[in-house]
Amino acid sequence: MNASQRGAWERLGQENPYYGVLTSALYRGRVLAGESREQFFSSGENDLRVMLGLVERHLRKQRRFHRALEFGCGVGRMTLPLAAYADRVVGVDVSAAMCAEGARNRDAAGIKNLVFTLPEHGLDTDLPPYDLIYSYNVFQHIPVAEGLRYLERLLDCLKPGGVAALHFTCVDPRPAWQARGTRLLRRIPLVRNVMNWINGEGFSGSAMQMYAYPFEQIMPRLQAHGVRELACDLSDHDGWRGIVLCFVKPLYSPRVAGGLQVEEGEEQQPQQQTDAGRSE
Ligand SMILES: C[S@@+](CC[C@H](N)C(=O)[O-])C[C@H]1O[C@@H](n2cnc3c(N)ncnc32)[C@H](O)[C@@H]1O
Fold it and tell me: Do 8 and 17 meet the contact criterion of CB atoms below 8 Å apart?
């Protein structure tokens, strides 16, 4: 992600954090109150229920996790309800302003077992691994090559035996000429600015760009970690068709010579993590 995209998410987090998560006119503005706020957070509960339903239906019965991570958590729409299913929850987002708003929402809800932080802290492989990792509506906004690197990092941070549910958009609904034309036009600075403005992101923002991930590039990364079985739900957001991939990371990983066994109860203690918007 280039500095301008990162800056655009930061700006959205400062000026329009809820709209940056769900692009509906209902959610415009710096703060959200009343019915819109209720609707926003109940949509998060619903989406989380669907995600955990997929995990439960296909992969394992129990729904209690020790350490859970949401990648690209925004203002905590789905992270807040996750706190009821895990001992410790980490929400990771590239925008410190989104993290800070998430922390305010957490405090308002009286939740104690949740921190919000930047990827460089929450995806540190020296931390104890997570036994649940999920991400929804996030990879689609990250350029493919970078998103695939994040996928590898998430796989590294997942505990052997842990479960992941990751959402990718795979099909760009635009005709090829239009998709290519838009990409080319976006390279021209002034034209890009006007396109951003038309999309309601302000003149210089470019956060909400969409990327389609070729499944054949996702598959080998999963296989490198020994993943052989997948469960999935299909998604369709205005013609951008995608997939929520749900899988267990096997105890034996081809990336680690001789496999990797983790004894229950052998985990290190969590290291200090802080909300990105707060001083350490
Ligand atoms: C559309 S919002 C979805 C938020 C949340 N997953 C939800 O559904 O409520 C996308 C989020 O991904 C975050 N994001 C974008 N690129 C990211 C990256 N490279 N690493 C982590 N977070 C990122 C944005 O800051 C934004 O909060």
Answer: no
